[in-house]
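General statements about sequence and structure are easier to judge against a single worked case. For one protein, we set the task of working out the structure tokens from the amino acid sequence alone. The sequence in question and its structure tokens are set out directly beneath this paragraph.
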Amino acid sequence: MLPTSSSSAGTRERSLQFALLFCLVDLCLMGSVAFNSTSITILGDLLKEFADTLCVLAAFLTLRAVRRSPDHRFAYGIGKLENLVSLFLGFVMIGSAFFITFQAAHHLHHPRMAEGTLPGIFLFALYTIFGYAIWFRTRLFHRQQPSAIMNSQSRLWFSKASFDALMGSALLVAYLFRSETWSWYLDPLASLLGVLFMIHAAWSMASSSVGDLLDATVEETTQLRILRQLVLRLDDYERLHKIRARRSGPRLYVEIFLEFDPLLLMGEVQKRINAIRQDLESKIPGSDVSIRPSTTSPE
């Protein structure tokens, strides 16, 4: 059984609280390692961890704001704030990627052996395990109830775990062959490869949020679920004219224009509308369904 909207929101909030705690611990540990190391990879990861912490903190605060009840000014709530914050997170990741690129280019021009990397290798290995675990958990919540925030967090943690795995592997090879001059280039090169993950994550965050801001049609799987339920209720109405659906944060707003038998009393029509709406909302978590009797297709 899928969780209700309120319980799902609480679960997402607890997931972000755990992720925020992890980021703060990670930031402190990596900061102490970077202080005693000359590795550009570790320094770049410290800056990236700072950006990640800001991202998770912003997501947590936004989710709490979105949970507030709608008022007279925002009758549909402020769910689209999730999309705006996701765009902001993407820009933060892009800024971090540019800074790391600049630092890596400098170290490629003046190569040197990185020192104090052994503690960093251990942390990268540990964070890789934790990062993939959080990514799997966040992705599961997003599948249960789609949300721009949870989607961006899922992509963020996958990028973060992959970044840590790549950085740890590169530093391990550079440490094992530290007496060889060619190994000095692994440190900045690993940073540049890590930048690709950050840019990919930033692009994914931005691209997944723009569509909902423009009220784009919901994904095809959700449309098919709506149509499937309407087919099961085919005897309750005469004709389906149109379906309009859009997302606002974790909520899905659906408008369905149905034509009913003109000989039916309004009380019977309303009874059928209530049954169809309740059926759809129970099958599609987070949905808010409005059914409008209509004899023509709306523009």
Observations:
- The helical segments are 5-35, 40-66, 81-109, 118-144, 148-176, 186-213, 220-232, 266-283.
- DSSP finds eight helices and three strands in the chain.
- The longest strand covers residues 239-248.
